[in-house]
Structures are given as structure tokens and as C-alpha cells.
Amino acid sequence: MAEGARPVARLREALEVYERVLWPIFLAGYPEETWRALESLASRLDPDDRSPLAVMAGCGTVSHRGWLSAHEARERLRARVNDFFADFDVLLMPVNQVPAIPIDPSEPQTDRTIRVGDEVRPYADLFAWISLATACHLPATVAPAGRSSGGLPVGIQIVGPLFEDRTPLAFASEVARVVGAFSPPPGFAARPSPERRPRL
Q: What's the burial of 198, exposed, middle or buried (CB within 10 Å: 0-12/13-18/19+)?
């Protein structure tokens, strides 16, 4: 496999697989009335609608056959990722599109947005960078990689092969040795670690 190779040509491919397996599991705990309302909404949606609510309703209310199809897509993705790790120890990725963002907890997630440059994007776009590791059950960690122009911490996501949890941790340790450990941005104090007590 050539240097600079990627397990997927486009990140959206991993995101779409992730959404197809995530939302049915996530919505399984919703009240029956809410689920039926989403099912009804999904039946009326334009297939090209990629709004957060449309994705949640469309992916989350599929039949069992539909979910099995999504699971098959995930297994094909996992096979390609496994091929990638035959030649590379880790996959380096951004953590997300932007540094830390302000969040209003009272605002529904489907209504939240993030600003990427001059463009306003749905909050659910943040799922994109976690989708590959999560959908494929891969170990991943984040190491500090400097600061943004606004002084906020920037991290690098280190993804490792299946069951090799120590590999991304070891790589993160090397990154910290070169770049330095995390330090809170100006105006933010580090929280003290909670007291740890042994479980009896």
C-alpha cells in the first residue's frame, strides 16, 4: 500500500455507514410514540435530504432487513480498514473540523450548528471524524498538537488496529514527548482530578 494511503476515499463514506448503524440503536430507547412519529416523517422524506433530523429519522427507523444491510456495509468497511493496518501502525486524523465550540444545553441537538470558516454547518457534522473508529470498533485516542490562532487546544486523533489499544496510546506518548503535554488555554483553570478510591 502506497504512502499516503487511506482506508476510505471519502470520510462521508464512513460517516454514512456509522449513521446507518448508530441511529437504530440510539432510537431503540425512545418512547413508542416518538419512534412512530419519526417513522412517519421518514416515509415522507426526500431521499436526498441530509438534514440532521432527516438522517436520524431515515436511518433510525429502518426495518431489521435495512439494519442488516447497514451491518454488512460496516463489515466491508472494517475489512478495508484491516487491510490498511496491514501496512500502517496508526491512522492520524483530526479530532473534528473546529476547536472547542460553545454549546447551549437547552438547544435540541438537531438545531445546533457549528461554524467552519465562513460556513455554518449542522452540529451533527462533528460525528464525521469519530465515525471511522466508532463504526469499526477501533481503539483511538487524542493527543495535544498545539493551539489554534484563538488559543484553543488542538488535538490529533490517533486510531489503531482492532484490539491494539496500546498502539495509539504509545504513539500519543511519543507525540507528547515531542509536542508537550496538554495545558489549559488562557482563562481556563485545570480541574483537580477527583479522588480515586479503590473498589471493594
A: exposed
Q: Are 156 and 40 in contact (CB under 8 A)?
A: no
Q: Among residues 147, 146, 172, 176, which one has the least CA distance to residue 159?
A: 172
Q: Is 193 inside a domain boundary?
A: no
- Give the pTM: 0.83
Report yes or no: 134 and 26 within 8 Å, Cβ to Cβ.
no
Q: What is the pLDDT of residues 4-52, one digit of tens each?
A: 678 888 889 999 999 999 999 999 999 999 999 999 999 999 989 998 8
Instruction: Please indicate, yes or no, if residue 195 is contained in any of the structural domains.
Output: no
Q: Is residue 62 included in any domain, yes or no?
A: yes
Residues 40-88 have pLDDT tens digits of 999 999 989 998 899 999 999 999 999 999 999 999 999 999 999 999 9
The whole domain housing 143 covers: 11-179
Strand partners, 143: 156
In one-letter notation, the amino acid at residue 126 is L
According to DSSP, residue 141 is labeled: E
Query: Distance between alpha carbon 156 and the CA centroid of its chain, in Å?
Result: 13
In a domain, 1, yes or no: no
For residues 62 and 166, give the distance between their C-alpha atoms in angstroms, rounded to a whole number: 36
HSE at residue 119, side-chain half, CA atoms within 13 A, is 7
- What are the distances in angstroms from CA 176 to CA 135, 142, 150, 182? 27, 10, 21, 8
What is the number of structural domains in the chain? 1
Q: How far apart are CA 125 and CA 50, in angstroms?
A: 11
